[in-house]
TrEMBL record, chain A:
This is Histidine-containing phosphotransfer protein. It is found in: Cytoplasm, Cytosol; Nucleus. Histidine-containing phosphotransfer domain (HPt) contains an active histidine that mediates the phosphotransfer. Its main location: cytoplasm. Residues 33-128 form the HPt domain. It comes from Arabidopsis suecica.
UniProtKB/TrEMBL annotation, chain B:
It comes from the Eukaryota. This is Two-component response regulator. The keyword Cell inner membrane does not apply. It is found in: Nucleus. InterPro entries: ARR-like, CheY-like_superfamily, Homeodomain-like_sf, Myb_dom, Myb_dom_plants, Response_reg_B-typ_pln, SANT/Myb, Sig_transdc_resp-reg_receiver. Its main location: nucleus. Residues 1-21, 151-215, 554-589 are annotated as: Disordered. Keywords: Activator, Cytokinin signaling pathway, DNA-binding, Nucleus, Phosphoprotein, Transcription, Transcription regulation, Two-component regulatory system. GO terms for cellular component: nucleus.
Amino acid sequence: MQRQVALIKQSLFDQGYLDEQFMELEELQDDANPNFVEEVSALYFKDSARLINNIDQALERGTFDFNRLDSYMHQFKGSSTSIGASKVKAECTTFREYCRAGNAEGCLRTFQQLKKEHSTLRKKLEHYFQLARQAGPKETARRPK
Amino acid sequence: MVNPGHGRGPDSGTAAGGSNSDPFPANLRVLVVDDDPTCLMILERMLMTCLYRVTKCNRAEIALSLLRKNKNGFDIVISDVHMPDMDGFKLLEHVGLEMDLPVIMMSADDSKSVVLKGVTHGAVDYLIKPVRIEALKNIWQHVVRKKRNEWNVSEHSGGSIEDTGGDRDRQQQHREDADNNSSSVNEGNGRSSRKRKEEEVDDQGDDKEDSSSLKKPRVVWSVELHQQFVAAVNQLGVDKAVPKKILEMMNVPGLTRENVASHLQKYRIYLRRLGGVSQHQGNMNHSFMTGQDQSFGPLSSLNGFDLQSLAVTGQLPPQSLAQLQAAGLGRPTLAKPGMSVSPLVDQRSIFNFENPKIRFGDGHGQTMNNGNLLHGVPTGSHMRVRPGQNVQSSGMMLPVADQLPRGGPSMLPSLGQQPILSSSVSRRSDLTGALAVRNSIPETNSRVLPTTHSVFNNFPADLPRSSFPLASAPGISVPVSVSYQEEVNSSDAKGGSSAATAGFGNPSYDIFNDFPQHQQHNKNISNKLNDWDLRNMGLVFSSNQDAATATATAAFSTSEAYSSSSTQRKRRETDATVVGEHGQNLQSPSRNLYHLNHVFMDGGSVRVKSERVAETVTCPPANTLFHEQYNQEDLMSAFLKQEGIPSVDNEFEFDGYSIDNIQV
């Protein structure tokens, strides 16, 4: 079981969903905070869902206030970076570039992509954490030092 | 590192105090400010792993209020750059001025311009997100370094032995500790301090600073103290003021020259930021000032003081409160400084006014009674900060002079001279007039917080306070106030918690936080504080001692705001008291802009006038510092452009302000 969990995690890294930052977070986890990574992830997804919502609304309005969108995205990028969500982060960067270029369509397209990546990552991580919990949180969640 | 008795060292928090060299970095009291909850949580975890004592905060206002409430409660602050309620740089400025704590900036943005901005604003470090724990492990060095430098300043200042006698003791101790604990980072310092130590070793006899001997308690720059400081500086001449003379003039027991020196340094930075925009306007202001001095004098001083006091620490005497209130009122409209930068600004109608009002109160000279304040304070309806508003007409700002019923009227007349705010106010709309005075409205609008910044309320009356007295130089608008303003404004934007602005230190901040939108963010920070009612700004102020300080600070910011508030026009109320911040900071970093706007806007009366003023402000565009309306984007870019300039104030002729020129 643990091995399975480890494999899943490894694949997440290999596929580029997560990057080293995630590992840093895992290092912060210890006996006193055994579920730190999971908690942070939960927080991230909750907060980013809100951001996505805001962006959705902003886009729906159709006014394309690029500055505002860029600002939202900056926030989003910051969070995603902190948690190590590399694919999501990449989409954020692309989106911001479109914002700067004033390319509304590019923004829309990228945003769809971003949402997709976001939701994929969420599912994967949820699955991962679930397994990790079953396998025994400490062992599995901790990266071999 | 820190002297055992020292209240502020890293280990001050621990009971041990003294030189526990081994666990030295442990228990460093860190305040982390970031609107992103994910980052905040991660940082907290990391810092705790480093054995630091962490306090989280997701709103800048709350952070400031915490800092104000616990003057010596923290050793270092880490703040994000992009925050919706307040620009991180503004927070940085405030903290530097009021609490003199080392501040580390961080951001996912690693562009050179932003990093440079951090440097120019005085951040001790800049971290790029994602932040790694290794980077956090060493932050204690900044605390140590700062302490050492503070001591050094006193030692180097001039030479009067007696001043530094006490310091020397401390320094020696500090040095010893530092040597024990500091890493290579401090070696350089250690050497120099050691040398110094030898030279002065015989001077120990000084009792003047007994308060500071052996440990340098942080000086709280209360409103009165700051007022005294500003008065002394003005008398001597801003660019000619030396800490020693200022100290003598102030004649405050227990105050050391180094306290004054460091405060002066900050003050100058502040002014510089403020006046950067309105450099050229400085001339105008001069004339203006002379004429109006009398009237403004009191006002400006007030503002300045208020802000200052605010900055200092919540110790706002009753009058300050009044001032604050006034300021706060005026300010509320000011959009949150931070806002301009981030589009996220909610359209809070920050402007509800109040700013203009506050400023007016100041004009009356010191006693900003709430009554006055309110008087001027527009019901906020005017001030609607609209992001897009460009208060172009400098008129907004300037007219103040006439309009301001309250004290400051003198300012208005001068408005004519300076186009002031109008242009810059674009965002803040609050430029209520006072800015005109100083023609310093150069406002660099950079910031234009779209929503909230009520452009400088040009309340001449109010502004004068801050701007005038503070800087003898015409162009020098009280930077302090400006910053304050920003804060206030920003909050205003939020919810018009202008009150909040006033009371920086205190709960007023809550007001800021009250914005519903942000409420959710305040997981950590209880929003209980948010009881900001914009209208209650005055109330808020009074309730909070800190408010007084806030006002003072606001005062400062106001001046700054004015100069830079071109963008702040949002509030339109600007009675055109173009706060010609003494031309100093036109360029004031975006931060200032925010402030300025806020502050000035307050003049309640300003507001009233502002409407009129807007039209009339006819400050001769000569110095239009404010660049024609800066849209948010413009401001940002303008600002950023400025940032690119090593010394932002290049374009403006500073009245010899420059940190380097601080004559100690």
